[in-house]
């Protein structure tokens, strides 16, 4: 009889190794096969622009121009590395934290903030960028991503789908259902888990007893890769290989990026209530941009002018008062609005009319 280990090998499923895959170490030294120079420069540029976008968005919350913003500071290597690994035809399914991934994919910065500004369900055309709308409920987009991937495979389209989720989201039933059916259907999906160690105030140790989140993949019958999530080159290479495998019929994979959320969960969170003040310190030394500055022998000023221009344009757009029709929020939710939705719309209309003194 075959041992469980033999079955793993038969299925070409290797348990993730004890250490996360690394291509560039914390000092900026290459310790693995590097992507070519053009890709390295694109990764560096994407992270510098992403961080500037992130800082600008955080500032806009303080000025009351943005309702809420979940910062990606420190997670740029995951978002930029995985997104640049996508082919133009592929799809990206982001969470609320992945605005930097959106901008990397080409979504205009102001459109990337529409949802978080509270103006519309989504500010960009998902089909134009092949980026699904950002979503706040955890893991709910994962089954949608599997559905899109499965449909693409049935139609013979050469498409892979990258879906982001956090470590906390892996505890949701939707994540389990998505992992399971992706594997059963051999759907061309890569689940990228940004393990930033915290789900608001819940630390990883209270989230799972698994050795790594990547290990979970084996139980579903797909490969799991544990990657240094602050190494954009490692994220890019591992994600690209997983996407290639998915596109060529090899089925789904899980990639876990081992990283850290430097900032609070959102601008309305206070980390001092649940984590020690020095918790982030070891991670500052692992900064993904600093590592690339050292690798490439250049500093972030290389892209400073472009980053400042982007931030200034974003400020100018966000400082304009948006024209919103509250009524529109009820459109496009269902093809045929439910009675409850119609009642809510009528209630809002009456409230607005009363505000105008028309009631
Ligand atoms: C289904 C669902 N349950 C609870 C929440 C409330 N909630 C918002 S963010 C969050 C933590 C998520 O942590 P994680 O998945 O690790 O992602 P991160 O925010 O760290 O990127 C929770 C519990 C939610 N948005 N959706």
Automatic annotation (TrEMBL):
PANTHER family reported in the protein's UniProt record: 2-OXOISOVALERATE DEHYDROGENASE SUBUNIT ALPHA, MITOCHONDRIAL
The protein's name: 2-oxoisovalerate dehydrogenase subunit alpha
UniProt lineage: Bacteria, Bacillati, Actinomycetota, Actinomycetes, Pseudonocardiales
Stated family: Belongs to the BCKDHA family.
Annotated GO biological process: branched-chain amino acid catabolic process
Enzyme Commission identifier(s): 1.2.4.4
Classification via Pfam families: E1_dh
The protein's role, per its UniProt record: The branched-chain alpha-keto dehydrogenase complex catalyzes the overall conversion of alpha-keto acids to acyl-CoA and CO(2). It contains multiple copies of three enzymatic components: branched-chain alpha-keto acid decarboxylase (E1), lipoamide acyltransferase (E2) and lipoamide dehydrogenase (E3).
Catalytic activity: N(6)-[(R)-lipoyl]-L-lysyl-[protein] + 3-methyl-2-oxobutanoate + H(+) = N(6)-[(R)-S(8)-2-methylpropanoyldihydrolipoyl]-L-lysyl-[protein] + CO2
Cofactor requirement: thiamine diphosphate
Residue ranges constituting the Dehydrogenase E1 component domain according to the UniProt record: 46-321
Molecular functions per Gene Ontology: branched-chain 2-oxo acid dehydrogenase activity; magnesium ion binding
Assigned keywords, A-Z: Oxidoreductase, Pyruvate, Thiamine pyrophosphate
Record-linked InterPro entries: Alpha-ketoacid_DH_E1_comp, DH_E1, THDP-binding
């Amino acid at each position: 009889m075959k041992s469980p280990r033999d079955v793993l090998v038969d299925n070409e499923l290797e348990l993730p190794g004890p250490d996360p895959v690394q291509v560039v170490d914390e000092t900026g030294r290459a310790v693995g096969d590097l992507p070519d120079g053009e890709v390295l420069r694109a990764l560096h540029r994407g992270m510098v622009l992403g961080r500037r976008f992130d800082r600008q968005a955080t500032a806009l919350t303080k000025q009351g121009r943005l309702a809420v913003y979940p910062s990606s500071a420190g997670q740029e290597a995951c978002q930029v590395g995985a997104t640049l690994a996508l082919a133009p035809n592929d799809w990206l399914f982001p969470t609320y934290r992945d605005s930097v991934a959106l901008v990397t994919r080409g979504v205009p910065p102001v459109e990337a903030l529409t949802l978080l500004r509270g103006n519309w369900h989504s500010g960009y055309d998902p089909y134009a960028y092949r980026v699904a709308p950002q979503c706040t409920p955890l893991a709910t987009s994962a089954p949608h991503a599997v559905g899109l991937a499965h449909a693409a495979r049935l139609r013979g389209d050469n498409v892979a789908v990258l879906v982001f989720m956090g470590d906390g989201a892996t505890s949701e039933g939707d994540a389990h259902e998505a992992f399971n059916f992706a594997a059963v259907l051999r759907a061309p999906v890569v689940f990228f888990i940004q393990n930033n160690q915290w789900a608001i105030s819940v630390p990883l140790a209270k989230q799972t007893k698994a050795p790594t989140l990547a290990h979970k993949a084996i139980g579903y019958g797909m490969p799991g890769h544990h990657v240094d999530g602050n190494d954009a080159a490692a994220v890019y290479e591992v994600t690209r290989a997983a996407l290639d495998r998915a596109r060529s019929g090899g089925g789904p994979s899980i990639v876990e990026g081992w990283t850290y959320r430097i900032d609070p969960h959102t601008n309305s969170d206070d980390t001092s209530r649940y984590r020690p003040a020095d918790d982030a310190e070891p991670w500052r030394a692992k900064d993904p941009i600093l590592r690339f500055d050292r690798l490439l022998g250049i500093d972030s000023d290389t892209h400073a002018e472009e980053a400042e221009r982007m931030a200034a344009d974003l400020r100018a757009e966000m400082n304009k008062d948006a024209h919103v029709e509250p009524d529109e929020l009820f459109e496009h939710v269902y093809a045929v609005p439910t009675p409850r939705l119609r009642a809510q719309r009528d209630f809002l209309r009456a409230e607005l009319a009363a505000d105008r003194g028309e009631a």
